[in-house]
Specification:
Layout: E1 15-18, E2 35-39, E3 51-53, E4 57-60, H1 61-66, E5 74-79, E6 85-88, E7 97-101, H2 110-120, E8 125-128, H3 135-140, E9 146-148, E10 167-172, H4 180-192, E11 196-199, H5 203-211, E12 213-218, H6 227-234, E13 239-242, H7 250-253, E14 261-263, H8 266-278, H9 280-297, H10 300-311, H11 338-354, E15 358-362, H12 368-374, E16 380-383, E17 392-397, H13 405-412, E18 416-421, H14 424-427, H15 430-439, E19 443-446, E20 450-453
Parallel strand pairs: 1-2, 1-5, 2-3, 4-6, 5-7, 7-8, 8-9, 10-11, 10-12, 12-13, 13-14, 15-16, 15-17, 17-18
Antiparallel strand pairs: 18-20, 19-20
């Protein structure tokens, strides 16, 4: 797809921001003091020198550019799987273009949707915000000049810590349909009678609560490095968050027990709450170290400077530098079907979102990159052989594995809920596959890759 040319924009370039969410969700300055915000929710009477209304869905950027007082020196698009408002025909603009990569950890086809957009529209820089663990999919697909600037759009409310907090344990944020694991954790705490204060309100109000609580709880939506991590530290709060995968980047930025504390199950959460409520001094020391780390490395002005550096082709701090891709090579000459791998990952990621824990079986014959991809889901346990009495939410196999007696036994005993047959069309003709699947009592639900169901189709299968 070609290497983008490095650009050196001025420190405060005239910037057009093409975003989908409302302006109020962001800080006063997102990229530059000289920025115009374009979004579908901009009020008709807004100052056109600061805000412009754009259509929903895909829209031609040329008419939007024509409404500007002068051509932009930089265009920044923020996109996620919703594709609620994204510009096309970007080549009609001469300015360098940056894509801020939003949520790819939920919604239908989240990685493939954004990847398809990037294949159609050329950007000079792609910045990952919340899901460092997904950036390898885009890099392997040939998208050049990708950087990781965690939670770039962070708009924190910095506070001094409170000497004598008025709340023991707090959680501020949503817990709706998108957050089943979060709801499960919060319900667990309330059943136990934990001294939990729940709140949903403005950023300023949430920051005041973090500063006035002994423990601030975070529960990611689906293994993502979210804004609350940094917002809590900026407010001087003590952060207790769910443990994420190494590839998420959280362990690269902060040290457990020094800057924050983590949990990986309801039971370990209970233990951590009990520990730090009994030793608030330890919580205050960790909160102070976390706040110092935030002030040193994660303030919005620093992130804006990092974006300019990345656009100019300059190096970022070591902890933000993406290493060479080390996913294992394919065991067999399957080629690089990155869309097929992303489809499997997205399906398993959705199971991970809606369940407190899940177990996967990846048969030894399956391309090892599938197993490496799934390792980035923190509450997923993976096995590489169908041995013992275990049950699996999902099993990945090849067509030849449909003759494996241990796998067939697990299927017939109801110990496999979903079966994904990967690399199918390189292994067998369609009629051979269909005959074999039917012979073992399965039903085909989808293709490329094939999802074969032990039970009748469910809504969860739609994402594949």
């Amino acid at each position: 797809m070609g290497e983008p040319t490095p650009h050196n924009p001025p420190e405060s370039p005239g910037t057009l921001l093409c975003f989908a969410a409302e302006r109020r969700f962001y800080g006063d300055v997102i990229v530059s003091e000289r920025e115009v915000f374009a979004g579908p929710d901009v009020e008709p009477g807004a100052d056109p020198a600061r805000e412009l209304r754009c259509p929903e869905g895909e829209y031609n950027i040329a008419p939007l550019l024509a409404r500007l007082a002068e051509p932009p020196e930089l265009i920044v698009v923020r996109a996620d799987a919703s594709m609620r408002a994204v510009p096309v025909n970007l080549d009609s603009a001469k300015a360098p273009k940056v894509l801020l990569l939003g949520d790819t950890h939920h919604m239908p086809r989240p990685i493939r949707t954004v990847l398809a957009y990037l294949r159609r529209e050329r950007f000079d820089l792609v910045v990952g915000e919340f899901n460092r663990q997904h950036l390898h999919f885009f890099r392997e697909a040939g998208i050049a000049n990708i950087a990781w600037i965690p939670c770039y759009t962070l708009a924190p409310c910095e506070r001094e810590p409170v000497a004598a907090p008025g709340h023991a344990l707090c959680f501020a944020g949503q817990a709706g349909a998108y957050h089943p694991y979060r709801r499960m954790i919060l319900d667990h705490l309330e059943r136990r009678g934990a001294p939990l204060t729940r709140f949903y309100g403005t950023r300023e109000e949430a920051a005041a609560l973090y500063a006035d609580s002994t423990i601030t709880l975070n529960v990611s939506l689906n293994g993502d490095l979210n804004l609350r991590v940094f917002e809590t530290m900026a407010a001087g709060g003590f952060l207790l968050t769910d443990r994420l995968s190494t590839e998420s980047g959280l362990p690269l930025l902060f040290t457990e027990g020094e800057h924050l504390a983590t949990y990986d199950s309801p039971e370990s959460l209970d233990a951590q709450i009990e520990r730090y409520l009994a030793d608030p001094g330890a919580a205050r020391r960790i909160a102070a170290a976390g706040r110092a780390a935030y002030l040193r490395s994660h303030r919005p002005a620093l992130k804006r400077a990092q974006l300019r550096a990345a656009l100019a082709g300059q190096s970022l701090p070591d902890e933000l530098t993406l290493p060479p891709i080390t996913r294992p090579a394919a065991a067999r000459p399957y080629g690089d079907d990155i869309d097929g791998r992303a489809a499997v990952y997205e399906f398993v990621q959705e199971l991970h979102r809606v369940r407190p824990a899940a177990r996967a079986l990846v048969m030894p014959s399956v391309d090892p990159r599938f197993a490496s991809d799934l390792a980035d889901l923190p509450r997923l346990t993976s096995d590489r052989a169908a041995t013992g009495p275990a049950s699996w939410a999902i099993a990945l196999c090849t067509v030849n594995d449909l003759w494996d007696q241990s796998l067939l036994g697990a299927i017939r005993e109801g110990r496999v809920e979903f079966l994904v047959i990967v690399n199918t069309w390189r292994d067998a003709a369609a009629n051979e596959l269909l005959a074999r699947v039917q012979s073992v009592g399965l039903h085909l639900w989808a293709r490329r890759p094939v999802l074969a169901g032990v039970q009748r189709p469910r809504a969860e299968a739609a994402s594949l």
